[in-house]
Amino acid sequence: MTSYFADISPVSYAPTDAPDADGLSFRHYDPSEVVGGKSMQDHLRFAVCYWHNFVGDGSDPFGGQTFDRPWFPADTMDLAKRKADDAFEMFRILGVPFWCFHDHDIRPEGASLRESHDRLNEMADYVGEKMENGGPKLLWGTANMFSNPRYMSGAATNPNPDVFAYCASTVKSCMDVTHRLGGENYVLWGGREGYETLLNTDLNREQQQAGRFLQMVVDYKHKIGFKGAILIEPKPQEPMKHQYDYDVATVYGFLKRFGLEDEVQVNVEQGHAILAGHSFEHELAMARTLGLFGSIDMNRNDYQSGWDTDQFPNNAPEAALAYYEVLKAGGFTKGGTNFDAKLRRQSLDPIDLIASHVGGMDVCARGFKAAHAMLADGALEGPRDARYASWNSADHLTTGKTLEDVAAFAEKHNLDPQPTSGRQEILENIVNRYV
Question: Which residues are the active-site ones (predicted)?
Answer without folding.
Answer: 102, 105
